[in-house]
Predict the 3D structure of the following.
Amino acid sequence: MESLKENQMTQNPDVAGMLRAHGILPTQQRLMIARVLFSRRQHYSADQVMNSVNDGRDRVSKATVYNTLGLFARNGLVREVIVDPTRVFYDPNTSDHHHFYNIDTGELLDIDTSDLRISDLPELPEGTVAAGVDVIIRVRAETATN
Amino acid sequence: MESLKENQMTQNPDVAGMLRAHGILPTQQRLMIARVLFSRRQHYSADQVMNSVNDGRDRVSKATVYNTLGLFARNGLVREVIVDPTRVFYDPNTSDHHHFYNIDTGELLDIDTSDLRISDLPELPEGTVAAGVDVIIRVRAETATN
DNA sequence: GTCAGTGCAAACCCTTTGCAGAAAG
DNA sequence: CTTTCTGCAAAGGGTTTGCACTGAC
């Protein structure tokens, strides 16, 4: 039990604390979902989270997965990435960065802010305040014969 | 009949020709949809196109609206803008440009390329070729209490 | 014991599809 | 006349919701 806990800790520094820090009560299901997101630190669709969480014996329902991801996003624990009209991706990396999106494979990759500079930001439309900047570089598989 | 045609021409330079130039057979319904897109030159969700096209007496079915917008997008007549997981926007402006998206109102505004410069584009992931760059500046209504 | 969280299934909404009838060339 | 397009209604797929049960504190 102690070793299990230690093992988890190495991969996921205090997930429960992260949840609390974002005003989220750390329940079992939420912890399971958060561990998936923060151990691999990739991008996940709700469906992928569903599968990753439920490959073991302990199960989390679909409704809870969706509700929890929405909760995490609202509270700033993860970032929603909108690149595909058919599904939302959740990104555990909330620091300022951008994305490659492979339209053939559905793969999503981070682009560090230092690798892409935006200058001459235009004035915002009247009566609005900035809420975020998303840069998506769409790519295709080179071999795509199409 | 002549004056009607002239009137349309002022707003929409040769819509039929545009369709043909993109390899699209200009049928009545497609012309009606294209006229909506190219007379006001704004951004439309499929539903907004549906409503605009069908405010008159001549009607176009929902299936045809969706299929036609998809066809237009595949053939490069319009650009799909993915900013909201709940709906796709269609942009009759196919020149290189970016967008403001008001997450409160759903309003979409163009940003000219000259008003926003991207430099230091990172190397593409191995085995991929560029397919497009989308920059979305998300804004909120200033007064949003939320 | 009280209140928030969870699970299930059904509801939702946008979008796509199957197929018969209509229109275009 | 042949081929493509259109319309309708039904299916599809990701996401949300209603409500009773469970678990957290």
